Structure formats: structure tokens, C-alpha cells
């Protein structure tokens, strides 16, 4: 206070402070770039992050660090720490929004334009088909790009909502119909050149590259070309999907006057006649073979005669006529065809097969037009279906054949026998051979399955065979028994599988080879031990 008064504590409010020469307890306003708590506290230099600042009388906020200051206002920028806000230096198209930390600023938002420096964004006033893109510097905006629509003003741009057959070209404010020669798939897709094949074209509002079929009376070259009027002569016309200026022949049952005229129905054609393909008048032509014609507007229709019948030329009936001998008629609309029978077949009247029908069993056929003849083959032979040789064929194994026109019959051979090829006996004419077994009836011999020590002898009926007889050894399967070659003192008993045999038993002596053991008759004091080869035996 001066005079003789002593210093007093500062009682200033928050946002104020008492400097060293303060003469009033309420202090002075805290300067920009500083933070003041009030009371006796000194002012503190702010440490704001870029984009923040401490205004005059700054005392902080409830939820933030007081030293960080507050967000920089629009149109200025704040470098941070204790720096004061500076006027924005943004170029046109940019502006300084709240919290800017440098003078460059940020891009002007969509639908607005920015003059730069301290100017803030303003609503765009561009026309439909234009929009203000981000960082616009002028109010009239730029052209709307292809694939989008722009309503003008501040609306910006939105994806094209085009339906198939429509598109959004550049500078569009709404979808536009796809013009001829192009196709549009809708949405943001651009219109593209038509890729139609010959006979197709892209009309207005086409939504796919292939286009659509050329209409009747026109022809279409394909690609981006539009349809063109038909130039067909009489008897021809341009059909749907036509790609030729001269068109195609008139369809059956109609006549065509040419140019762009469509086919017309024949109405004065007589029975047995019809308007064939390429007709230029309604009188028509004679009905062709295999068909019948009712006349008038009716087309020729395929004959539906049964097999063995046919329809000649100019027919007006569906029934046809009988097929002559030596010919084959399959019916329907087919013509009669001369038969070409191979040996073993023949063609009677009303035949349906070009190569005839198979000769019956018990008969033979020489082919061509000859009839089947009764077979006269010898016993052990027979005539099957389709035979051309009167001598017949040899009877196959498992059957017997009585000859003449009799068929082959299954054999009834007993077990151990079989009917071989050419058999004429129902009970079989052959015994089963060694190494094979025969179960009888019509079954043929089968390989023996005997184990070692067993053999399938002649007339066997069991594949397991029988035990090998004494004095022999048997290797099994198809092998026959073989004489034993045992040494003296050994012998081959029944079911032997090895040629060396087994040792002679006690009380007997064995001379080897195929001989069987012989009971000893030695004198008292002598005996025949195991493996004895002499009747004298061994001294006890």
C-alpha cells in the first residue's frame, strides 16, 4: 500500500495473480499463455500441447490438466506451450478448424468451399450435376464424376442408384437411360460398348453385353450396330435373331414375299401337297416319301405306320402299305430298303430288319431271299439259331446232341463222368481223367485239389481225392500216384506223400521200393526190430 504499511497476503480470485509490485490484494488478470490459481500463488507458464492455448484469466477446467489450456478456436491456430493464437494462413480450399496447431489448416469439408486464411467453410451453391469436393476453394464446385449423382448445393455426391439398363455419366444429377449400341448393368457401372454377337443388338435400356435377339423383319450385325431393315428376296425372310441382310429360307408350312414381310400361312395347298421350306406361294409341292400331307396350312407329317409297312411319295394317309418280300421296312417314315441278309438270316414279307431275322434253331439259312430249311445234322451235332451250314455245329462240352433238328440238351452224367465235345449220350461219354474230378450232370472236369498224400484217380468225383495207395507216394493236386522208391527197411504206407517212405515197424521186415511190410517168422532167439529188411531178423 506504500507509506508505513506492511505487505499483506494476496487474496485474488482464480485467473488472477499478484505480481511483485502489486498494490491491491485482488491482483491483476492472468496474461495469455499462463495459468493463475488465485490467492497467493504465482502465475505459471502454460505447457499446452499443439492445438491448445491458455487465454487471459486462465484458471483451468474441471476435467482437464490446467497447464494444457483449452482447444484453439476456429480461424486461428495455436502452436502450443505458452504461445498465443495466431491468425490462420490456410490456402484457399483449407481452413483452420478448432484445435488447429498450424496455419496450413485442414481440407474444406464435402459440400462446402473455403476462401482460405481466417475464412470458415461456407455452404456450396453449385448447380445440379456438380458438387463441392473436399478442399473446394470455389462455390460453383466441380463436375460430378461418372458412377455418381450430384444434386447440387451442399448435397455432395452419392453412389449412382441406376437400375439395370441405366447409368450415371459424368455431370449427372440423376440416372439416364442407356442409349442404343451400349449396355449398362446399373448402379455405378459406366455404359459400355455393346458386345452382341451376330443376330443380336443392344437396344435402348439394354442391361447386358450380349444384347437381345434381332426382331423379325430386321437383321443385326452385332457389336455396337443397331438393327437394320431386312433385304430378303421372295421365299426368304429375316427371322428373330437374324444376322444376314438376305435372311433365311421361309419355314415349312408358310410362304414368304421377301423384304421385311413376315412368313404367312399357306391356305390353298391341296391334299398330298404342302408348303416346303423356301416357298414363295401357297400352292406348295408334292408330299415327300415317308410323309403324308393333309393340304391347306398343314405341314407334311411323318408317317406313323407300323414296322413292316412304309409310306411312298405323295401319300395322304398315315397307314402306309405292306413291305414287299426281300425288303425291310422299319415303319414310321422310313422307306422300304432291299434286304442284304448274311448267311444265317432271311427276309420274309413284312420284314422289319435290313439284314433279316435270325434263322431258328433246328434250321439253316443261306441268306439273301432264301427261306429257312430244316437241319439234317448227324448225332453229336446241332443247329443253333442263325446257322447257315446244314451240317450243324459240334455239340459243346456239358451237353449232348441227338442230331437232326434236335437242340442241344444239358448232360445228365453220373459222378465221375462227363459229356465231352460232340457228345451224343445223355449219361456222358467220357470218364474223368487222373488229376481231375467230375461232379456229374452238365459240369465239365475240374482240376484236382488233393493235398500231398492224396490223389484223384480216374472217375474221381471229389476234388479232395482219395488216400494214396500203399506202395506209392502222391504229391497232391493234379499229380498221379508214383511208385515208392523206399530203401530196404522202409516202406510207403497208404497216404504217403514222400518217395523215401517210413521206417519198417517192429515185427515186420521191409524190402523197400513198392513192397509192403511182411510179418517176421524168425526162429526162437531172434526178432525183427524196427527198420528190418530181412526175414531172418536180429539175434535177441
Quaternary organisation of the protein chains = single chain
Strand content: 15-25%
Choose one word for the global shape.
flat
Biggest sheet record: 2 strands, antiparallel
Average of pLDDT: 88
Q: Treating each run of at least 4 consecutive H or I residues as one helix, how many helices?
A: 0
Q: How many angstroms does the end-to-end distance come to?
A: 165 Å
Computed structural class: mainly beta
Tell me the radius of gyration: 60 Å
Count of β-strands: 58
Neighbour order of strands in the largest sheet: 1-2
Question: Runs with pLDDT <50, length 5+?
Answer: none
Helical content stands at: under 10%
Topology diagram in text:
Blueprint: E1 16-17, E2 28-29, E3 34-35, E4 44-45, E5 52-53, E6 70-71, E7 76-77, E8 86-87, E9 94-95, E10 106-107, E11 112-113, E12 122-123, E13 130-131, E14 142-143, E15 148-150, E16 157-159, E17 166-167, E18 176-177, E19 182-183, E20 192-193, E21 200-201, E22 212-213, E23 218-219, E24 228-229, E25 236-237, E26 248-249, E27 254-255, E28 264-265, E29 273-274, E30 285-286, E31 291-292, E32 301-302, E33 309-310, E34 321-322, E35 327-328, E36 337-338, E37 345-346, E38 357-358, E39 363-364, E40 373-374, E41 381-382, E42 393-394, E43 399-400, E44 409-410, E45 417-418, E46 430-431, E47 436-437, E48 446-447, E49 454-455, E50 466-467, E51 472-473, E52 482-483, E53 490-491, E54 502-503, E55 508-509, E56 518-519, E57 526-527, E58 538-539
Antiparallel strand pairs: 1-2, 3-4, 5-6, 7-8, 9-10, 11-12, 13-14, 15-16, 17-18, 19-20, 21-22, 23-24, 25-26, 27-28, 29-30, 31-32, 33-34, 35-36, 37-38, 39-40, 41-42, 43-44, 45-46, 47-48, 49-50, 51-52, 53-54, 55-56, 57-58
